Automatic annotation (TrEMBL):
Catalyzes the conversion of xanthine monophosphate (XMP) to GMP in the presence of glutamine and ATP through an adenyl-XMP intermediate. It is an enzyme of class 6 (ligase). Pfam families: GATase, GMP_synt_C, ThiI. One of its GO terms (cellular component) is cytosol. It comes from Capsicum baccatum (Peruvian pepper). This is GMP synthase [glutamine-hydrolyzing].
Length: 544
């Protein structure tokens, strides 16, 4: 569903203008958890892009910039006049507060004392943002700023200060401008959600009414309107949650004019968590009997591996895989045209909102395309000359929301609980050439032991994502009283709500000891097991 379509459906849209904070997506998540629809767009978007969405509330996010920096990102010309004319409440967070203060005639300077991390603030006035608090009440919040508002615009007042005396919260209730110099969206701000709830419901007068049932109903209507009565659509099914839910939504909208293709490309192995022994047959059976999805299975092992041979650069691997998928879809579409007499015009993809956010250019970068962390296989890995038009029914949803939608459509719970699996498959879990030696076979075996051990320990549902990584290095070991020179592998398991940020899972040492022994004793060619204990950020969840 396009943002404008869903926004117009919602009379309570909270629009977030993103200025580059690593926490911006959390604002979106927190607001949606209150059953209020929220969207995030680039903070430098045009005024028409903002007015078209018709928001009730606008939040200016934090960001790494200083308002004094050349080219610092800013809302568009005419923004202040627009929000005042429409009576829109505006909340600036960190950089957003400083931007409001500066643009409305106040003064922002480099602070004498920078404030980072947990800080205590005190309520100075129990009005507006702290109308539900008492004067003198204190709370722990998460600060992250170097600049400081030292003179407020006319009509503004300070309602909260840090224990160092810096401005922590400001407002002009008459003009509906508010600002927080801390991040209420992070859990480190203990009363942050209470402040957001008070602002949205009590100050802005929004009502809770956004739910997955309505989203599903509206999405089906949009797809019906988009796809002509004689048009055919194809969908790539991976066996994962996203593509399955996306296909089911489209199938509800257009029925058997949807044609699904399941590609076995050697990068999603018969031993993997999705494709263990006879797992491919079980997944296919679920598609056909439980979900009633028409599916064709295509074996493209040779095509993928031959194209990837010798390729070591991560971004190139993703591009090759994306292009090869499209080649297969084009062939499938051509064969389907012979069968039904009409060539498919649309391709369904399970793109999620985090995929879209991570593939957007950073605010203030001056670029129309981002400095790529990695191309998402749905967003950045597809060729520009692709002949099929895209349908992305989940592109505004987070993972837990997708699972909730799947539950509404009676997709088996066990299927919905599956860990995320990357579109490029095991190719992004083997740094370097995926075809070198027997790296794929080793990785499949190690991954099988790791995932099965997690399931046997009863902790699978506590973990957002778990997998093994094959390292293209050899280490010295001693096995069977003999010196070995074998491969090292890494284990990765993280907890998360949406995949945008993640923390490593704290395994019991006994579990790790057992898994390490099983791997080294069972998998020929491995003599060392490492554990990845890096959060996101600074790392991504996948290694490539």
């Amino acid at each position: 569903m396009e943002p404008v379509t869903q926004a117009k459906k919602s009379s309570n849209l909270v629009l977030i203008l993103d200025y580059g904070s690593q926490y911006t997506h959390l604002i979106t998540r927190r607001i949606r958890s209150l059953s209020i629809f929220s969207l995030c767009i680039n903070g430098t978007s045009s005024l028409s892009s903002i007015t078209e969405l018709n928001p009730r509330v606008i939040i200016l996010s934090g960001g790494p910039h200083s308002v004094h920096s050349e080219g610092a990102p800013c809302f568009p010309s005419g923004f202040i006049e627009y929000v005042e004319e429409k009576g829109i409440h505006v909340l600036g967070i960190c950089y957003g507060l400083q931007l409001l203060v500066q643009k409305l005639g106040g003064v922002v300077k480099i602070g004498e004392k920078h404030e980072y991390g947990r800080m205590e603030i005190e309520v100075e006035k129990n009005e507006g943002l702290f109308g539900n608090k008492g004067i003198g009440e204190k709370q722990l919040v998460w600060m992250s700023h170097g600049d400081e508002a030292v003179k407020l615009p006319e009509g503004f007042e300070v309602v909260g200060r840090s224990n160092q005396g810096a401005v922590a919260a400001v407002e002009n209730r008459e003009r509906r401008f508010y600002g927080l110099q801390y991040h209420p969206e992070v859990t480190h701000s203990v009363e942050g959600m209470e402040t957001l709830r008070h602002f949205l419901f009590d100050i802005c007068g929004l009502t809770a009414g956004w739910n997955m049932e309505d989203v599903l109903e509206e999405e089906i209507k949009v797809i019906k309107a988009m796809v002509g009565p004689e048009d055919h659509v194809i969908c790539a099914l991976s066996g994962g949650v996203d593509s399955t839910v996306a296909a089911t939504v489209v199938h509800k909208a257009i029925g058997d004019r949807l044609h699904c293709v399941f590609v076995d490309n050697a990068l999603t192995s018969v031993l993997h968590q999705y494709f263990r022994y006879k797992e491919r047959e079980r997944v296919m059976a679920t598609f056909e009997s439980d979900l009633h999805l028409p599916v064709t299975c295509v074996d493209a092992t040779e095509e993928f591996l031959s194209k990837l041979k010798g390729v070591t650069e991560p971004e190139m691997k993703r591009k090759i895989i994306g292009k090869e998928f499209i080649n297969i879809f084009d062939i499938f579409a051509h064969d389907l045209e012979k069968k039904v007499g009409k060539k498919p015009t649309y391709l369904v993809q399970g793109t999620l909102y985090p995929d879209v956010i991570e593939s957007c250019p950073p605010p203030g970068s001056g670029r129309t395309h981002s400095h790529t962390i990695k191309s998402h296989h749905n967003v950045g890995g597809l060729p520009k000359d692709m002949k099929l038009k895209l349908i992305e029914p989940l592109k505004l949803l987070f993972k837990d929301e997708v699972r909730a939608m799947g539950k509404i459509m009676n997709i088996p719970v066990a299927f919905l609980r599956r860990h995320p699996f990357p579109g490029p498959g095991l190719a992004v879990r083997i740094p370097g050439d995926v075809t070198a030696g027997n790296s794929l076979d080793i990785l499949r075996q190690v991954d099988e032991i790791f995932i099965q051990s997690i399931k046997d320990a009863g902790i699978y549902d506590e973990i957002w994502q778990a997998f093994a990584v094959f390292l293209p290095v050899k280490t010295v070991g001693v096995q069977g009283d003999q010196r070995t020179h074998s491969h090292a592998v890494a284990l990765r398991a993280v907890t998360s709500q949406d995949g945008m940020t993640a923390d490593w899972y704290y395994f019991d040492f006994k579990f790790l000891d057992d898994v390490s022994r099983k791997i080294c004793n069972s998998v020929r060619g491995v003599n060392r097991v490492l554990l990845d204990i890096t959060s996101k950020p600074p790392s991504t969840i996948e290694w490539e």
